[in-house]
Amino acid sequence: MAVAVCPGSFDPITLGHLDIIERSTYIYDKVVVGIADNQAKRALFALDERVAMVTEAVAGLRNVVVAAFDGLLVEFAKANEAQVIIKGLRAISDFEHEFQMAHLNKKLDGSVETVFLMASPEYMFLSSSAVKEIAVFGGDLAGLVAETTAARLERKLQG
Ligand code: PNS
Q: What are the residues whose beta carbons fall under 8 Å from the beta carbon of 121, sequence distance 6 or more?
């Protein structure tokens, strides 16, 4: 069975992430969305909130499972019997960092390949940090995140 991991912080998950996850399901038998408990990044949403948010956002997609991970991505991939890490690439600015991570992951475990999917044009500009900034200033999140995610952002920022 061909299994892929789609990793990220998902703080919050955007429609750009969902586009990459959905397109991955057309290529692989199973897609594991891996939510990193990245202590170095101060997240707006706690890990359990991100797991709940991503789970509801992918509810309509087949063969997708959601799991949190702490530690190395290649170890999470191995634990889930995934042969592939999927990353979305937006602009050239993503490339240098992703190139470095792909090579480091390959060095850590040569059996796991990184595959890049180009972001769809409508999501080229979209990022979790931009979504948070728009949400903080009360901007319209339609077309940027799922409705369930927008509702969570609203609740979080009110609280
Ligand atoms: O959505 P993000 O924050 O860009 O995702 C980054 C992520 C989670 C993919 C990256 O930080 C990661 O792979 N973290 C796990 C730790 C790890 O394996 N580091 C070595 C790779 S260079």
A: none
Measured in Å, residue 116 CA sits from the centre of ligand 1 at 15
Using the mean position of ligand 1's atoms as its centre, give its distance from the Cα of residue 8 in Å. 6
Q: How long, in residues, is the chain?
A: 159
Q: How far apart are CA 36 and CA 136, in angstroms?
A: 23
The two three-digit tokens of residue 112, written as one number: 């796991």
Is-catalytic flag, 128? yes
For residue range 11-37, what is the model confidence (pLDDT) as tens digits? 999 999 999 999 999 999 999 999 999
> What pTM was computed for the model?
0.97
Rounded to an integer, what distance in angstroms lies between the CA atom of residue 60 and that of residue 77? 23
DSSP states of 35-90: EE--TTS--SS-HHHHHHHHHHHTTTSTTEEEEEE-S-HHHHHHHTT-SEEEEEE-
CA 153 to centroid of ligand 1, rounded, Å: 23
In sequence order, the β-bridge partners of residue 32 are 5, 65
- Shortest-distance atom of ligand 1 to CA 9: 1
